[in-house]
Design a protein that fits this description.
With 373 residues, this protein is of the alpha+beta class. The protein has helices at residues 5-12, 18-30, 36-43, 49-60, 81-86, 100-115, 125-135, 194-208, 225-235, 244-258, 267-279, 283-295, 299-306, 334-340, 355-369, and strands at residues 33-34, 64-70, 73-78, 120-121, 145-149, 156-160, 167-169, 181-186, 212-219, 314-321, 350-351. The chain folds into 3 domains: 5-97, Orthogonal Bundle (Arc Repressor Mutant, subunit A); 120-146 and 160-238 and 313-347; 244-310, no CATH class.
Amino acid sequence: MSIGTEYVEAIERYGYTRTEARFLYLVATHSGYFTQQQFFDFAGVNRGGMGTRLTRKALQHGHIRTARHARHTMVYNLFARHFYESIEKDNLRNRRRLSDELIRTRLLILDFVLARPDHDYLETEQEKVRYFHETLDLPLALLPHRTYKGAKSRSETQRYFVDRFPIFLGRQEQGSDPIAPAFVYCDSAGNSLLGFISYLETYQPLLRCLPAFEMVYAAPNARKFHRAEAFSTRQYAPPPPVDTQRLCRYFTVRQLWESHKYGSLTRADRDLLRDGDKRYQGHLFDQTYRDWITKGLTPTEVNALINPGSERQKMAFKTHLLPESYDILDHVSLDKNRSRSGTIGRSAHSTNGSALGSIISTRQALENSRTRP
């Protein structure tokens, strides 16, 4: 990732060095929280005055505050609005105070970014929405989102990708396949995979629509890597092939129904129609049906469209070992870990408007409106 020179220079005007400015930019963009050790690792220096000078300057400017102090480790929150305004990211919510659990997640995210700073990250909510909705032309309903309701009004605000986990794009070589976005989940050192499972379920509507993507599972130890890979592989395994003969029969019955030739339909035909309306949903089936009518597609041609073989979705699973578990924050209760690991906490005025729930509701409404006799 190439940090804009104008942003680095804007931070340097506060009196920070070039290295300090680059580090604080990454903190502001991806985490909002950091430790001195993370700066030491980024700068490639041992413990000493360099880290102390950074925090001393930041405290003097009112840019940071101490978020936690445990086991001789300070966790700092980069919170000053004018700092974020100077790099044109004043709409980021990284400035806010978070629970200990979410602070840990943000520190893990920062560790990943510091280890791979050259990736082409989609840094903000706006960049992610622009890429998936405008560049890839995917409906907003497929993107992971949350609806926030006004405390004193009936207004609602949709926010997308509120978990802040990194997403980056690979570099496309000449003659290679299109860029496959990479989704990074940073997990804690605990034994549970519930947070990762919840993440996959939340992102499933979006991921299912991508021709290819990369899933990166990052954690402070490797003991969950195999389990995470096994679950992810099962979750996104290619679906079984569609029975083309049955699909073509459904097309025939559907065409008779839409032509109002009800007398030509048997009870078995009507049962097939009801089942097919539920089974064969989505743009691919609708477009194939239209082509079957207008172009007279043969079963072989239908099969080539519906079961494309090598054109099936490609998913690559990778792992990344994070350097620190941040067990200084381990006093978070077990119940809290189980219910909210790796996710944004629910407020009294927010609802989890997952795309999957939206799709299910939409499909149910469509089924009710198209009930066959």
